[in-house]
């Protein structure tokens, strides 16, 4: 695959060289301990590979929102030991005041985690003085944080213009997967877009209708589109003020020869609770005024599975129903398992992303069977909107300029 960015394979000999590696270590914490080390494990391959090649590895990351000043509760010092455990090799912690001297004393193969980049007010402003300060510590720059690539910050974008810049292994895998999914996909392409509100994913839907062959709309969003089709959705979550927007998306899809799939049978209840006594499945035209739609029905779910069987590529962002509460996870689980089975047999390239989507795929036990699951939230959503991601664009420009 011809790439618009350089990878670790293009770096040459880095033995003894100082390499800045921007990672995403913004991990959840509970009682002072890391409660989910997914991001640490994602960062490990690039850090370990560079260390094995004899580089002095200087790990950059943000943690929380300290608002441009030091905050002990958001220090990366508390992530140093968990990262050491994941890597199986020592990671030293370096604060900003001592960084130049500490870095100068590191040996080839050493790994140092530098304090939270957001302790500097100029980090989020992409300020020249912060870019210069960070760049002065290294000789090469590697961005391995796709999840922060939608932000033009000093450590995610600015430094890429100061030093030879490369994509880390996680970034490389992410960009390759996204290229297969929407950049140059095999058709037919299906997109599943779910979630509570149309308003949060308007740009995604507008962009996708011109890029995919099948657009599956689920979650609370589907109710607004059903309302635009004249369906009375009862007490369901519905943005009635966006019905004209939904109608415009229908028209755009028709012009682009994109089929929009909405449920024709639904699971409803009079209250949103686990296994409510009022639970029933009905045709969308039979929703009572005091009922709310909480999941897609079995017939519609089966029909969507049949659609996926005709497709070569799937992009997925958002659940089909209120999946956190059973039994309103049924449709999401069923379609996820269908997608995973098609991916396993080699007929479907499946790329999924976003927090709820990752949680749903984990719940279905199929995350490892998908072609690629992105842990990025905002960056994945902006990519689905067709927006340029500053952190990625900086790598691409570096490639073209050198």
Description of the molecule:
The structure is a single chain. The chain is α/β, with parallel strands linked by helices and 402 residues long. The protein has two domains: 8-169 and 388-401, Rossmann fold (3-Layer(aba) Sandwich), CATH 3.40.50.1260; 185-370, Rossmann fold, CATH 3.40.50.1260. Helices cover 35% and strands 17% of the residues. It contains 13 helices and 17 strands. It has helices at 38-52, 77-87, 99-104, 128-135, 169-183, 202-208, 221-228, 243-255, 298-309, 330-344, 355-364, 378-384, 390-401; strands spanning 18-22, 29-30, 33-34, 56-60, 92-94, 111-114, 140-143, 165-167, 189-193, 214-217, 259-261, 265-269, 280-283, 292-296, 313-317, 349-353, 372-374. A six-stranded parallel beta sheet has the order 5-6-4-1-7-8. Helix 1 packs across helix 2 and helix 7 (221-228) packs across helix 8 (243-255).
């Amino acid at each position: 695959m011809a790439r618009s960015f350089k990878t670790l394979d293009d770096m040459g000999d880095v033995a003894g060289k100082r390499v800045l590696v921007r990672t995403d270590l913004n991990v959840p914490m509970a009682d002072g301990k890391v409660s989910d080390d997914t991001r640490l494990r994602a960062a490990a391959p690039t850090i370990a590979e560079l260390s094995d090649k004899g580089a002095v590895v200087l790990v950059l990351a943000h943690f929380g929102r300290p608002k441009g000043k030091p905050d002990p509760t958001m220090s990366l010092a508390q992530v140093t030991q968990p990262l050491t455990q994941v890597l199986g090799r020592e990671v030293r912690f370096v604060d900003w005041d001592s960084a130049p001297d500490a870095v100068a004393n590191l040996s080839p193969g050493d790994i140092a985690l530098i304090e939270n980049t957001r302790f500097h007010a100029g980090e989020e402003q992409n300020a020249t003085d912060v870019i210069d300060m960070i760049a002065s510590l290294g000789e090469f720059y590697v961005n391995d944080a796709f999840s922060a690539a939608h932000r033009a910050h000093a450590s995610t974008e600015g430094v890429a213009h100061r030093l030879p810049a490369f994509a880390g292994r996680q970034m490389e895998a992410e960009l390759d997967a996204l290229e297969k999914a929407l950049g140059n996909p095999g058709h037919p392409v299906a997109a599943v877009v779910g979630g509570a509100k149309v308003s949060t994913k308007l740009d995604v839907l507008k962009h996708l209708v011109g890029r995919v062959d099948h657009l599956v709309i689920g979650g609370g969003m589907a109710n607004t589109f059903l309302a635009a089709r004249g369906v009375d959705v009862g007490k369901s979550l519905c943005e009635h003020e966006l019905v004209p927007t939904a109608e415009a998306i229908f028209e755009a899809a028709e012009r682009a020869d994109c089929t929009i799939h909405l449920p024709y049978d639904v699971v409803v209840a009079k209250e949103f609770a686990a296994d409510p006594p009022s639970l029933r499945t009905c045709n969308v035209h039979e929703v009572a005024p005091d009922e709310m739609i909480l999941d897609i029905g079995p017939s519609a779910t089966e029909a969507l599975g049949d659609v996926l069987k005709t497709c070569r590529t799937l992009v997925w962002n958002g659940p089909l129903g209120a999946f956190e509460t059973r039994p309103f996870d049924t449709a999401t689980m069923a379609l996820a398992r269908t997608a995973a089975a098609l991916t396993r047999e080699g007929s479907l390239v499946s790329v999924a992303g976003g927090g709820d989507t990752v949680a749903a795929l984990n719940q279905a036990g199929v995350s490892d069977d998908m072609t690629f699951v992105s842990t990025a939230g905002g960056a994945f959503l902006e990519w689905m909107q067709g927006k340029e991601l500053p952190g990625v664009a900086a790598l691409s420009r570096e490639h073209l300029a050198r």
